[in-house]
């Protein structure tokens, strides 16, 4: 291998390793936990068009159910159904508004998503 080729190779490897291997997720991640506050972060503010993803690393089944799904005449914006351990649930976007949600299996588990039409999302 010529020195010039070696240098080119090292530069290439250096550039590749400088590249972010795991890009920051393009979604807002919410982690389910077995203890309070159960949904982490419990309160999230995002802009419309921004996806959200719940992850269930616990050993139990949970749901992510918009409170509107429980009341007649209310809009049901999202309902994960049973999320198994290691399961995930994602929604691509929500219209502007406030979305309280809970776990149907453990109704003490509650969180809220606030969706704004602002272009700059903020995470509480
Ligand atoms: Cu639960």
What does this 3D model show about the protein?
There is one protein chain. By secondary structure, the protein is α/β, with parallel strands linked by helices. Helices cover 13% and strands 28% of the residues. It has a four-stranded mixed β-sheet with strand order 2-1-4-6, with no helix packed on it. The relative contact order is 0.22. The model has no long low-confidence stretch (mean pLDDT 85). Copper (II) ion binds next to loops. The site of copper (II) ion (CU) has 5 residues, from loops.
What are the key terms here?
binds copper (II) ion; 124 residues; extended; four-stranded mixed β-sheet; Immunoglobulin-like; alpha/beta
